[in-house]
Each structure stands twice: as structure tokens, then as C-alpha cells.
Design goal:
The complex is a heterodimer. Chain A has helices at residues 2-16, 20-53, 59-70, 74-85, 100-125, 129-136, 141-151, 153-168, 172-178, 188-197, 201-226. Chain A is mainly alpha-helical. In chain A, helix 2 (20-53) packs across helix 8, helix 4 crosses helix 5 (100-125) and helix 5 packs antiparallel against helix 9 (172-178). Chain A starts with a helix and ends with a helix. By secondary structure, chain B is of the alpha/beta class. Chain B is built from eight helices and nine strands. Chain B has helices spanning 43-50, 70-74, 91-101, 106-119, 135-147, 165-180, 192-198, 220-229, and strands at residues 3-13, 19-28, 32-36, 58-63, 77-80, 153-157, 184-188, 201-206, 209-210. In chain B, helix 3 crosses helix 4. Chain B is globular, with a radius of gyration of 18 Å. The chains are: A mainly alpha, B alpha/beta. Chain A binds chain B through residues 127, 129-130, 132-140, 143, 147, 150-151, and chain B through 51-53, 71, 74-75, 77-79, 81, 83-85, 87-88, 97-98, 101-102, 145-146, 149.
Chain lengths: 228, 231
């Protein structure tokens, strides 16, 4: 018990003394996760909207595929992209492996299906009259889609936050594509895994507390949006 | 008089087996038409076809003024549903929506919004939140939103179903006034006395077929049969 409490006190001390290593890992996590969620939102929001409002052949298959992609194990995404970005891979010449860009690409693959699926569910649950009202007031189908997004904006924001929650907490992609390089690709999750294995439990715990705080903040914000 | 909208050999089949078939229908500018018929006869479906929200599997719906793309045609017609949807935001923002899409300047927008709200009896409602309005107020805002951009054809699906008797009189007076400005109005109703009060021409529909036509080609036997059976 003393070990745990001593580690906890040390961890809190590291957070409030703005320990450089802790700061670097937090910054890298927030930077890569923010970039990936922006790209995932740019892909996932139109995809979810399109699947929700446009009847076409193969729509059910696409939705099933999207549901499957939501459950993708992070290490599998990491493995596939590792093959693509590695020197012998098709994009090896770009030299992206073990850079934040490779991590962002992997996290985008993880988050985009989540954003698309949540947006699809929100569109399906939205009032069916929104699109018709916009169209009958003279909107083009695109303008009507934009109006629909405005009307369901809180659901769309919840979708983006859910995607962010997924990428900030993942470890497989960050470890396999980032390589856990100090100062550039070491995130909170990979640092926790490394430092704990080295016996630096207090350091891992300090990052765990920050990660929990981020997750708590994200969930509080999500609840706030869902109640509106 | 020039027809605002012409419907030729239109056929629309729903998945559930309902079939709407209209051979020939012209609606003239500045006229008011009452679309009547029993529940499930196809009134709302016909209104949606005229509003270009449901596209028929066969036939043509054309507007006066030659060939236009679908969006341009939609800009000339508008449908106010029985339970209209108001967008989130203020009453003013709802009325602005159609005006912005038509590129109307801001000052002109404000002028028209003010005028239209006063016509529907909602002066000073510009800043009220749409979601806080009563059923009757929603109906009137939806009507103002439809009229503010001066459509050629105004379609109303059971517009008086949710309004009280005082508002009904004002509403009917407004509809009569609209036709004087050249707006063609089609409203669906179960109340035949309302069509008499408004001097509307009857469009009677039953089982997806028009059983009379407004411009003379009326099958009196069928129309009288329907009128007698529905009081």
C-alpha cells in the first residue's frame, strides 16, 4: 500500500512540477490525436451523412463494413500500415515510418469509421422533415445536407469527441508506427508502457493520471452535448 | 391564363402498393385550389409531387417558363406540411433561409421578414426562438417562411388542422389575398365548406386518381358522389 501511495504522491508532484518528460509525452499525444481527429472528421462526417441520406445499391454492405472497421484492433492497423510505410513497402520512399505523420495516419484509420458511424446514427435518428424542409425552401441537395448537419451539430460533435477518445487512449498504432522515440513520437500511452516496464512506476502513473483527466474531460463534454 | 404547373401522365408507386396516377392537370396562375379526398387517397403524395420532393416513376411535372433544373424549379414552389419543421434558431433566421438561398440583400431580407410576420399576425417575433413557439405559431411562422420569398405556387398540407377558430379566419383572409398577387395556392383539406368560403376550385382525389379536373373536364357524377358521401 505504501508503494502505491508513495508512487501516487510522486506522480502528482511530477505533474505539478511540470516535469519535462511528462510535458513532452502529453504534447505529442495531444498533437497527434488532434491532427488525426481533424482528418478523420473531414472524412467521417461527409461519409456518415452520405450513407445516412443517399439510398444506393450496396449501402447495407457499406454500413456493415463500417461497423466492422469500428472494432479494428489497433495493433492490426499498426501492422498493416507498418507494412505500407516500411522501407520495402509501397510508401517506404516517403520515410514516414517512426514519425508523428505515420502515427497520425494510423490514428485517422482508427477514428474515421467511429466518426462516420456516429454521424450515420445521428442522421438516422434526425427528424426526417429537415431535408425536405430545406429542399422545399429552395436548397440544393448539398445545401440541404449542410442544413441537416447544422441541425444535428451536437450529435456530430459527439461523434468527433468519441473518435478523439479512441485515438488518445490507443497504444498499438503509436507504438508500432511511432516507435516510441523520446521527444518526437513518445505519447502518454507508449511512455506509460515503457516506463512501467523499466520500473518507473511513478512516472507511468503521472501520465496515467493526465490521460484519465483528458478522458474524464472528454466524457464530461460528451455528456454535456448529449443532454442538449 | 398561363398554367403555373402542368402534370402529364404521372405515375408514382409506393412500396406498400399505393399507386398515384394523374393523367392531366394544369393549375392556373392566381387561382386557389382545394385538394380533397379521404385519408390515404393520395393528397399528400400529390402535393409532394408538385413540390418536386417525390419524383414520379413516369410522366412529367413542368413549370411555366421553360426547361429549368430541379433546384431552379423548386425555388418557384414551396410546401408547408401539416406539422411543419422549424430550423433551430430564431424566427428571423428561419425566414432568412429561403431568402439567402435566392441571394436577396440583407436590407430587403429584414424588410420582407418584418412585413411577412405582420401579415401572419406575429409582429415582433423576429428574435423569438423557433423551438419555444406554440403549435399555431409554428404553423404561422412556416407559412411566413414559405411566403417571404414570393413563390409562384404555394402548397399547403392541411394547413388549418392545428389552428384555432380566430386564427382560421385570419388565415383564410390571407389565402384569398395571396391569389390577388398572382400566387397559385393548393391546400389539402377535409372541410368542403372551407373551399366554398375561399371560392377554391375543387381537386377531388380518390384511390390515387383525380375524379375531377378544375378547368372544366369534370366528371360531375363522381364529384357529386364523393361530396354526398363526405358531407
Amino acid at each position: 500500500m505504501g508503494y502505491l501511495s508513495d508512487s501516487f504522491i510522486t506522480a502528482v508532484g511530477m505533474i505539478f512540477s511540470f516535469d519535462r518528460e511528462v510535458q513532452l509525452a502529453v504534447w505529442t499525444s495531444l498533437y497527434t490525436s488532434s491532427c488525426s481527429i481533424v482528418i478523420a472528421a473531414l472524412i467521417g462526417i461527409p461519409a456518415g451523412l452520405w450513407l445516412g441520406i443517399k439510398p444506393f445499391c450496396g449501402r447495407r454492405l457499406m454500413i456493415t463494413l463500417l461497423n466492422t472497421l469500428m472494432a479494428l484492433p489497433t495493433v492490426v492497423v499498426g501492422l498493416v500500415l507498418f507494412g505500407i510505410f516500411s522501407r520495402q513497402g509501397p510508401l517506404g520512399s516517403l520515410g514516414l515510418l517512426f514519425t508523428p505523420w505515420a502515427m497520425i495516419a494510423g490514428q485517422t484509420v482508427l477514428a474515421a469509421p467511429i466518426v462516420a458511424n456516429y454521424v450515420l446514427a445521428t442522421v438516422n435518428g434526425a427528424d426526417q422533415r429537415i431535408m425536405d424542409t430545406a429542399l422545399t425552401l429552395g436548397a440544393t441537395p448539398f445545401q440541404a445536407g449542410v442544413q441537416l448537419l447544422k441541425e444535428i451539430r451536437f450529435g456530430v460533435m459527439a461523434a468527433v469527441i468519441a473518435g478523439f477518445g479512441r485515438v488518445i487512449a490507443e497504444v498499438g498504432v503509436a507504438m508500432m508506427l511511432g516507435g516510441n522515440i523520446r521527444g518526437t513520437t513518445r505519447t502518454m500511452t507508449t511512455a506509460i508502457a515503457l516506463e512501467t516496464s523499466k520500473g518507473e512506476f511513478a512516472f507511468g502513473l503521472s501520465l496515467g493520471i493526465v490521460l484519465l483527466c483528458v478522458a474524464l474531460f472528454v466524457n464530461l463534454f460528451l455528456n454535456f452535448l448529449q443532454q442538449r | 391564363m398561363q398554367p403555373v404547373i402542368s402534370i402529364r401522365d404521372v405515375l408514382l408507386c409506393h412500396d406498400k402498393g399505393f399507386r398515384l396516377s394523374i393523367d392531366n392537370l394544369d393549375l392556373l396562375q392566381g387561382q386557389i385550389y382545394a385538394l380533397t379526398g379521404p385519408n390515404g387517397s393520395g393528397k399528400s403524395t400529390l402535393l409532394r409531387i408538385m413540390a418536386l420532393l417525390s419524383l414520379p416513376q413516369k410522366g412529367k411535372v413542368t413549370f411555366a417558363g421553360g426547361i429549368m433544373d430541379l433546384t431552379e424549379q423548386r425555388k418557384r414552389v414551396t410546401l408547408v406540411e401539416q406539422s411543419p419543421y422549424l430550423f433551430q434558431g430564431t424566427v428571423s433566421e428561419n425566414l432568412q433561409y429561403g431568402l439567402k438561398l435566392r441571394g436577396v440583400e440583407k436590407e430587403e431580407q429584414s424588410r420582407r421578414i418584418k412585413l411577412m410576420l405582420s401579415i401572419v399576425g406575429l409582429e415582433g417575433f423576429e428574435r423569438r426562438m423557433a423551438k419555444e413557439l406554440s403549435g399555431g405559431e409554428i404553423q404561422r411562422v412556416a407559412l411566413a417562411r414559405a411566403l417571404v420569398f414570393k413563390p409562384d405556387l404555394l402548397l399547403l398540407d392541411e394547413p388549418t388542422a392545428n389552428i384555432d377558430s380566430n386564427s382560421l379566419q385570419a388565415f383564410e383572409a390571407l389565402l384569398s389575398k395571396l391569389t390577388r398577387y398572382g400566387v397559385t395556392v393548393v391546400f389539402s383539406t377535409h372541410d368542403l365548406s372551407q373551399s366554398d368560403r375561399l371560392g377554391a376550385e375543387l381537386l377531388q382525389i380518390e384511390n390515387g386518381h383525380l375524379i375531377n379536373r378544375p378547368n372544366g373536364a369534370q366528371d360531375d357524377n363522381d364529384a357529386n358522389k364523393w361530396r354526398n358521401s363526405h358531407g
